[in-house]
């Protein structure tokens, strides 16, 4: 009797099984069919563009950036604002790279970095405003937006870390 081999298409699980086993041996935490929260990639793109835009503005036009936030004409030194721009540019490069990864750990670390940055910026801006005893409209908008951005980043941080529901 002759055995007939069926030519059934391989399932997705069969195709990914060797990759998953190799990844486990190498110690990678890549999950191949991970469901991402709705809007995560859009938020990552918005964050990367926002960080890049503010970084370029701080590097190229430090006086205008300072004036837009604090409503003061000039700063005594442009170096701190340009250093701030350089730091933001470095963070933006991390954000751009995280946009193209599928590893949950990297995505979570970038979201946590974002949330910490926005929280620190909120505190520093708040202390500066209290010390100067005046509230500029740009600074108040910055404070409100930072709280909003912290909440969004933390939301996605926890959503990416959740275990998928079993079906």
Automatic annotation (TrEMBL):
Protein species of origin: Coturnix japonica (Japanese quail)
In the bilayer, the protein is annotated as: Multi-pass membrane protein
**Does the keyword field hold rRNA-binding?**
no
**Protein known as:** Tumor protein p53-inducible protein 11
- GO CC terms in record: membrane
Query: Does this UniProt record's set of keywords contain NADP?
Result: no
Q: What is the lineage of its organism?
A: Eukaryota, Metazoa, Chordata, Craniata, Vertebrata
Keywords noted in UniProt: Membrane, Phosphoprotein, Transmembrane, Transmembrane helix
Question: Which InterPro entries does the UniProt record give?
Answer: TP53I11
According to the UniProt entry, the coiled-coil residues are none
